[in-house]
Amino acid sequence: MDNKADIREAKKKMRALLTQSRKDMSDGDLHREDSAVASYTASLLRARSGTPATIAAYIPRRGEPGGGILLNALHTQAPTILLPISGPGGILEWSSYKGDSQLRPGRLSISEPTGERFPTAELLNCDMIFVPALAVTPEGVRLGKGGGYYDRALAELEEISGGNPPITAVLLYNGEIRDDLPVEEHDKPVDIIITPTGIRYLNDRARLGTTY
């Protein structure tokens, strides 16, 4: 593609295609794939050396991989989960998950925790960060929903960690690893991809500390 405008337009069209594809999934397919994704995610955390003390995650809506069962699956393996809070200017803050009763709808109508807030730098203490995506390339470059929240957060972690941020993982449905995604120069790959068919490690760093 010739310029940034072309790539952004291509991303917009791809987001619409992928979003519609998720909406078209049947309840049975969603349940089956959500259950598999949640199971593999819990297995990933169990396979790390020792139970992760802290992870960062998010609460999927219906039609996002893991669905309503993901958070509980994560909480069985990680005692501390930081969840995002959407702020103005595309900036994320984070707060600890203290149970469903301590959640409320946030700026984007997504449930958010109501406790003490932390800046993104707090995620340097995480053993793993689960990042939402609509799809990734085979190399792990993700296509998000276009708000840029996670792009900013991950770029900040890359900078302040000196190029050694926590491991990142995305959760996807079948068919969402694609080699036709438009990619910009600043787009960075994740370390692990989890789908209903299994766990894909994209580098040795991601495998480090895993017991299988």
TrEMBL record:
Keyword presence, Endoplasmic reticulum: no
Cofactor needs: Mg(2+)
Keywords, ordered alphabetically: ATP-binding, Ligase, Magnesium, Metal-binding, Nucleotide-binding
Residue ranges that the Swiss-Prot or TrEMBL entry lists as coiled coil: none
Record flagged with keyword Metal-binding: yes
Catalyzed chemical reaction(s): (6S)-5-formyl-5,6,7,8-tetrahydrofolate + ATP = (6R)-5,10-methenyltetrahydrofolate + ADP + phosphate
This enzyme's EC code(s): 6.3.3.2
Chain positions recorded as substrate binding sites: 59, 64
Gene3D superfamilies, per database record: NagB/RpiA/CoA transferase-like (3.40.50.10420)
Annotated signal sequence range: none
Matches recorded under SUPFAM superfamilies: NagB/RpiA/CoA transferase-like
Residue numbers binding ATP: 11-15, 142-150
InterPro entries xrefs: FTHF_cligase, FTHF_cligase-like_sf, NagB/RpiA_transferase-like
NCBIfam families reported for this sequence: MTHFS_bact
Sequence similarity: Belongs to the 5-formyltetrahydrofolate cyclo-ligase family.
Protein name, as recorded: 5-formyltetrahydrofolate cyclo-ligase
Lineage: Bacteria, Bacillati, Actinomycetota, Actinomycetes, Mycobacteriales
